[in-house]
Design goal:
The chain has 119 residues and is mainly alpha-helical. Helices cover 60% and strands 0% of the residues. It is built from six helices and no strands.
Length: 119
């Protein structure tokens, strides 16, 4: 009888732990992504020849904020959407932006990026 009670308690405890376990969720929003790359628009449209310090600071901040896989995928999706909707975007500059700012990310900033493959 005591073994059965202990087994039931263990099952209830296990189910409780599964239900309360933290889930992987992105904490990064597209608003945050947009805010951090807003200073890069003139470079991305070819108005200036190199990204500004403020632009590169935003790119670096964005990289530092995207710490989890979900955050990286969210950032990728937001950047992809922004790239798709930006009139006059120089896609070559968009793809080169992280490197121009000495920042390494695992995907290209492009309207064609498959963000599900971000690692």
């Amino acid at each position: 009888m005591a073994r059965m009670t202990l087994l039931k308690f263990a099952c209830v405890l296990l189910v409780s732990m599964v239900l309360v376990a933290p889930r992987a969720e992105a904490t990064l929003s597209c608003g945050t992504v947009t805010k951090n790359i807003a200073q890069c628009v003139t470079y991305l449209k070819g108005t200036v020849t190199s990204p500004s310090t403020a632009c590169c600071t935003g790119v670096t901040t964005l990289k530092n904020l995207a710490t989890t896989l979900e955050d990286k995928k969210t950032a990728c999706g937001c950047l992809k959407t922004a790239a798709s909707s930006m009139t006059g975007l120089d896609t070559k500059r968009a793809a080169e932006l992280p490197g121009e700012c000495n920042v390494s990310i695992s995907y290209a900033i492009s309207p064609n990026t498959d963000c599900s493959k971000v690692s």
